[in-house]
Amino acid sequence: MIYDSYVWKKELKKELNNFRKFVAKTDLSGLPGIPDDINLKVEKFFFVSAFIIRKLNEAKKLSDELNATTIPAIHFKRKNKETEINFLNNHRLEEFYNLENGSEGSLGLTALCNTLIHSYIFKVVKDASRDEESAQEKEKIIGILVTSDYSKDKVLYYIKVKDFHSILQETINDYISFTSWERVRGIVINSRK
Question: pTM of the full predicted structure?
Answer without folding.
Answer: 0.90
